[in-house]
Hints:
The complex is a heterodimer.
Chain A: H1 2-15, E1 19-24, H2 28-35, E2 40-42, E3 56-57, H3 62-67, E4 70-74, E5 77-79, E6 84-88, H4 94-99, E7 103-109, E8 113-114, H5 117-129, E9 134-139, E10 143-144, E11 151-152, E12 159-166
Parallel strand pairs in A: 1-12, 2-3, 2-4, 4-7, 5-8, 7-12
Antiparallel strand pairs in A: 5-6, 6-9, 10-11
Chain B: H1 13-33, H2 35-55, H3 59-75, H4 77-91, E1 94-98, H5 101-117, E2 135-138, H6 142-146, H7 149-155, E3 159-162, H8 165-173, H9 189-199, H10 209-226, E4 229-232, E5 236-238, E6 243-248, H11 252-258, E7 262-268, E8 272-273, H12 279-290, E9 298-302, E10 346-352, H13 356-361, H14 376-379, H15 382-387, H16 402-408, H17 437-451, H18 458-461, H19 475-481, H20 483-493, H21 496-502, H22 504-514, H23 530-536, H24 539-553, E11 565-568, H25 571-575, H26 578-590, E12 595-596, H27 605-609, H28 613-632, E13 636-639, H29 642-655, H30 658-667, E14 668-670, H31 671-680, E15 695-700, H32 703-707, H33 711-720, E16 723-727, H34 746-757, E17 766-768, H35 771-781, H36 788-792
Parallel strand pairs in B: 1-10, 2-3, 2-4, 4-7, 5-8, 7-10, 11-12, 11-13, 13-14, 15-16, 15-17
Antiparallel strand pairs in B: 5-6, 6-9
The complex binds iron/sulfur cluster.
Residues 180, 289, 371-377, 401, 430-433, 435, 437 of chain B line the site of iron/sulfur cluster.
Amino acid sequence: MTTDTVGRFERALEDLQVSVAHVQATDATDAIESALEGPAVGVELPFEGVSLPDRVETAPTAGDLVDATTGVTPARFAIAEYGTVAIESAPEGDEPVALYPQRHVAVVAESDVVPDLGAGFDRLEAAFTAGDDSIVFATGRSSTADMGGLVEGVHGPGEVHVIVLEDR
Amino acid sequence: MAERVDNGTRSEPASQADTREATAARLRYLMETEGNAIYPMASGSNVRRAQTYAETDDIEQLRAEARAIKEDAIDRLPELLETVREAVEKNGGTVYVADDAADANAYVAAVVEEAAGGSNERATAASHPSGDDPTVVKSKSMTTEEIDLNDTLEARGADVYETDLGEWVIQLADDSPSHIVGPAMHLSREEIAALLEAEFDLAEPLETAAELTRFARDYLGEKIREADVGITGANFVVAETGTITLVTNEGNARKCAVTPDTHVAVAGVEKLIPRLRDLEPFVDIIAKSATGQSISQYVTMLSPPTDSPTLDFADDTPLAGETDAADPTADTGDATDETDPSGDREFHLVLLDNGRMDMRADDQLRETLYCIRCGACSNSCANFQSVGGHGFGGETYSGGIATGWEAGLADHDAAEFNDLCTGCTRCVDACPVQIDIPWINTVVRDRLNRGEEPAHLDSLVEGLTPDEEPSGLDPGKRFFGNIGTAARLASATAPVSNWIADAEPIRALLERTLGIDRRRNLPTFRRETLVDWFESRGGTEASRYRAERARKRFDEVPDSLEREAVLYADVYTNHVDVDRGKAAVRTLEALGVPVQVPNLPESGRAPLSQGMIATADRQASRLYAAVAEDLDAGRDLVVIEPSDLAAFQREYERLLPERSFETLSENSYDLCAYVFGLLEHGADPSVLRNGSGEEPITYHSHCQQRTLGLEAQTVALLERCGYAPRTTEAECCGMAGSFGYKREYYEVSVDVGQRLTSEIDADDPVVATGTSCGDQLESLLERPVPHPLEVLAPR
Ligand code: SF4
């Protein structure tokens, strides 16, 4: 079931032209490292034994956000059906880190990939009940057709990369 | 736009013609200047919407759920207002319910001034480019358009920047949005490039969409970073948790909401829904209906003031630095907590009434409040595809549902564009919350009719028009609303009436008085009506005999074929297109079904399309009374004209008692579907004129037939009879009954019609089920376009 769900998630991401890597926790740091481009900012990852590469600035100033090319954040969960990652507006700055840089790298645990929107709402409700109060469902890359043609990367990131952490 | 008479003074006859001419000229201008950009965008979204709907298994369930939630929410609105106030205040924000535009504007302006000049240090920071002028960044919000918030803020010295790219372009051009979802849909890339060239000191000219987008992003990015206040709308507001939902593809709403310290969300009170869980069907359907995407890029569910750290670009301490961010378990529920990052944030939710509570109390307009502003109704509308929201829109809202909004909102006016809804019902299948948009338009039209003063031209059509409507009604409307009376007269005096009607002086008179465009072919009335013909060949008795004889030729007649049909001879079939009526009678008899063709009352379709509800209501009762006995006796009411069938199966729900409506709607059938049903139940198709199996034929279904889900059955019938039908894709033929005759809409009608004819192969025979569609196709293609049964019926 889970494998299926993750497979479906990866296919949905592919359709959205979002690249994806599926790695074991022990290889996570390397996988993140190779997904970085330019100066990078990030939010510490809540997954046991997984840390961000050293060159990721984890206590960025607002200026760092603007200068960074890549922002790395955890995703609270992901929705396979649509290729969605759920980013929390946490005090650690997940929201601006996921939003400001041109490239967003989202890290999600395999066990947090749920099959469909309904299951996503189960997670959302649970999170809100537990005290979270702001979450964004981010699907694919920021885009607009307002300037006479479809363009990616408008106010939000124009590139998205998802790293799925295999459960041990 | 032509001047409207709205102060009780009545226009002279000549000025009515002038008004028509001015409307025609304005629509012609919009088609030329904006139509080329609007059509590919709107119809493209519509095609994607239709595909996505078709691919979504539970789409109807989703629509029903969304609708049920809205019904419940609007029902409980006063209670939800209390709930949301408690929830937002508990989070540390403020709720303000504004009575009207002025109230809302004054409140927001005060918040902006406070945020910029008050305790907020950033307002005077060196990085601030405009000194003490407050700066505001906004994400797209139709509600703030509705109240002209930008004007108020600017008048009070604030710099206001729209950050949605389309909305920003509109702001630069000092233009108004032309589509609920794509405000700058009417502008081409070249026009946008020229606009930026004129507005900015550009080092290099911007050409591609990517270059234009990059420039906008950089420019607006800076504005967002410097702003004192971010203003957003809200697609939905969850009362229970005080959560506002922002749906965007660009990401600008997220930035506006979380970057400045102060966030103001402005939304109509109708955006409230009870629980977080209620969001699910809306999150699922809003992008599907708007653009045909499965979900929007960003669906933000934000219960502000959010815990996200504030961003001060003049400060070089880490974002989460001074707060207790290291301890993620810290209680962040209390905004006054010193360690709480959201303590720096301020949030105001402004909920706008501005007429909505009155709409809620109005049985007919209430449905409008269920609208989630997805724009699907605009995209699916053939007339909108031609003229866009500047032609088919009011002060703020555009497209089909605009009439409901503009009529319901304080100080808005739905009069000028309402007639562009022809009642074709194509939007009915598109709307994610199942709003009966054409009905709202009919109701508003009826109210507009009643609001007018007596017309000078009444005498011209009096006697011809025994209706229930106020005497101020536009004579053209009255004429088309009583077309049955005119048809009876014209048939009685045919062919003389046809010669007279075609004479140039008469055409000029008809144009001046009734607004019937001279360029449109008038129907040719027949001296012998269908009812007369049917009687002259022996009536019901003879039909029974013929049907019996046909049955004897069948090997075996299943019980399910023991039927009797009452054929509804609508005005047009009875008086003009008599041949399709004859074809229907011959086909049914040949398949063993005896037919009656009584002289039945008009359906009320014509007055309905003119907004004459009282007349239609009376006609519905008469029609029902006239067929009740047949229905009780188990006969089937077979309807040739799809718009009449739509009246029986849709609009009559509003006009007849429930049981009568059910009886009628369950026992009335579309002619082609009925014939296909007979074949499916064992009737012998060989008695029809069958094709060779691969004979190409193009079939244009009727708008209302498609909405009723009946297009497929005609296609199946044609296939069954040895044809290889190809169906047309264009939403509408552009005719829709009286619409194409009217002077002011003639050119729009032709524009829409040409999109349809461009799909049709020059060599293919063409058939159409609707009379108006057939007329339109015949005049544009210059060849006969019969009803499908005229091709299939035995001679
Ligand atoms: S009326 Fe329906 S289709 Fe039209 S904008 Fe509103 S929700 Fe969308």
